[in-house]
Specification:
Layout lengths: L1 E3 L10 E7 L7 E9 L9 E4 L13 E9 L4 H19 L6 H23 L5 E2 L1 E7 L2 E7 L3 E6 L2 E4 L6 H7 L30 E6 L5 E5 L1 H4 L4 H10 L3 H14 L6 E10 L14 H11 L2
Antiparallel strand pairs: 1-2, 2-3, 3-13, 4-5, 5-6, 5-7, 7-8, 8-11, 9-10, 9-12, 12-13
Length: about 300
């Protein structure tokens, strides 16, 4: 279901969607919702979100791809970059070979997005334009996470929030080098200075990790317009008590606005009602779509 209220005043919710996926192996049973708002300061929204088609009548044989991208490059150009990145990455899964390992599909999609956006900047004469990207691909009971920039992925489990992504920023490097404590990130003057992004150079090196999903997990992807003014404990509190994925997303956006975010604010919420449990696989993180489906055929008559 999609509701669009894009005519709302700046700072108010201007778009959301809420979807439910039935259990269809190897797809986990989930609920999801996504929001993106301009915020009270910016004139345009350079964030983009991607939500998969969860219509059970149109199965595509893939897992589920969710993503948040935060564009940069001046008026309109940042929005072009973030939308391009999500379209190219999702298109890579649709057009790709199912025997290709998921990690390689993610890497290939991000590399293509990087080159295409880099070339687009030259076509527009726009100097450097780029985008962050945090993408979650769910298949079986696994989360494959691809990340570059300073959008974030949080996993809420048993009432606790864990950030699964590393900020590719000057301040993030300082924290990893133990020159700064994590509690200083949000208030640091150089928090938004990126060290990695899609489209700003010919080559890109995303972080790609894999995590096992549990029943009741809540996955939250968000741009820095949300997490920069929302504490980790607040992510856990809202996810644990808001009730529905829609209310979780609304609660996070409303808190970001209440805390005077100065950026666009976007959030994608995925609740794992039941993961699609599969037998243990030992393939050094190179599990392909075809491999998962072959394993399932041995389990399901």
């Amino acid at each position: 279901m999609m509701t669009d209220t894009s005519g709302a005043s700046p700072g108010l919710l201007h778009g959301w969607n809420e979807r439910t996926a039935p259990l269809s192996r190897p797809i986990p049973e989930i609920e999801s919702s996504g929001f993106s708002v301009v915020g009270p300061v910016r004139e345009d929204n350079q964030d983009s979100i991607h939500m998969p088609d969860l219509d059970p009548a149109n199965p595509d044989g893939h897992g589920l791809l969710f993503a948040v991208a935060d564009g940069m490059g001046g008026y309109a150009h940042g929005a072009v970059a973030s939308r391009m990145a999500l379209d190219i990455l999702s298109g890579t899964f649709v057009s790709g070979n199912h025997s290709t390992p998921i990690r390689k599909v993610l890497k290939r999609g991000i590399e293509k997005a990087n080159l295409d956006i880099y070339q687009k900047a030259h076509q527009l004469g726009a100097g450097r334009i780029g985008t962050t990207l945090t993408a979650a691909y769910l298949i079986g009971n696994l989360l494959h996470l691809a990340h570059i920039g300073d959008s974030r992925a949080y996993l809420i489990r048993d009432g606790r929030a864990t950030c699964l992504s590393a900020d590719h920023t000057v301040v993030g490097d300082m924290v990893r080098g133990r020159l700064l404590t994590p509690d200083k990130i949000r208030s640091h003057a150089q928090r938004s200075i990126l060290t990695k992004a899609i489209g700003i150079g010919l080559f890109v090196q995303p972080d790609i990790t894999r995590h096992r999903l549990h029943e009741g997990d809540c996955l939250i992807l968000c741009s820095d317009g949300v997490w920069s003014v929302v504490q980790d404990d607040d992510f856990a509190r809202i996810a644990s008590h808001a009730g529905t994925v829609k209310k979780i997303g609304e609660g996070l956006i409303e808190l970001a606005l209440r805390n005077n975010t100065d950026d666009n604010a976007s959030v994608v919420v995925v609740h794992i009602n039941r993961p699609s449990h599969l037998p243990e696989v030992h393939r050094n993180d190179e599990d392909s779509h075809t491999h998962w489906l072959d394993r399932l055929r041995k389990l399901v008559p």
